[in-house]
Specification:
It is a single chain. The chain has four helices and no strands. The radius of gyration is 17 Å and the shape is elongated. By secondary structure, it is mainly alpha-helical.
Length: 79
């Protein structure tokens, strides 16, 4: 799925389930892309060119924080 195409879906509808059905992408990443696009003002105006879009994403996209594990859980120790 092209990033620009996904953002077009996000611009046209706020229904994450409909976008999920159309794109086969889970709602959580769609929500992250939607928040990112809103932060950069892309939901109300036309999208930049693909090259500009990818350059902006490369400089501003933040990876999700890794999940915190329980302090007592150790994957190397098995009973």
């Amino acid at each position: 799925m092209d990033l620009r195409e996904l953002l077009r879906y996000v611009q046209t509808t706020s229904n994450l389930s409909a976008i999920q059905l159309a794109t086969s992408i889970h709602r959580r990443p769609i929500r992250r892309y939607q928040q990112w696009a809103a932060t950069h003002g892309m939901l109300d105006k036309s999208l930049p060119r693909v090259e500009e879009l990818h350059a902006l994403m490369a400089t501003t996209w933040e990876l999700p924080h890794p999940r915190k594990r329980c302090p007592w859980w150790n994957p190397t120790e098995r009973s």
